[in-house]
Design brief:
The chain has 170 residues and is α+β, with helices and mostly antiparallel strands. 38% of the residues lie in helices and 18% in strands. It has helices at 11-56, 60-63, 73-83, 108-111; strands at 93-97, 104-107, 129-139, 157-167. A 4-stranded antiparallel beta sheet has the order 2-1-3-4. β1 and β2 (104-107) form a beta hairpin.
Amino acid sequence: MKRKRSGEHGGSTFLEFVLVGVPVIFIMFSTFEMARGMWSYHSLAYAVREGTRYAIVHGSDCTSSPNSCTVTVANIATVIKNAGVGLDGSQLSLTFTPNTGSAITCTMSTCLTNNTQWPPSGANSIGMTVQISANYPFRSGIAFFFPGNSATGSMPAMNFPAMSKDLIQF
């Protein structure tokens, strides 16, 4: 026979949840945020690599007659945008560095309207190096738990860099 005590309302169940459940929820949330960060980082690296691949097969031989496949910064930025699914283009910063000459740095939104030929003439011969770099700020909810970050009121960002460098093939 079991007796029911009238003053007992399950306080130990609540205490057990607080001691075990809250840390488990925090660990699950942290795991999801780390996975989201890794996905963003790898998506960025893949997108930059695809942009470089596109650029290296559109060198000087591609633009000589009868071909007319001159490539612009906008063309390469479109390839990067399409390959970087889920990345916020307004936050993505790109730098196009040819073998010779000056680099072009722009955000994705301004790169998509830049009709400058890239790689530029004189830096688009077979065997010349092209490099595309990107920087993407990643904001995570777990950053609020880092010491000193909760006082600012905004979510701090970690900058994810990506770089791809290759030789022009055609």
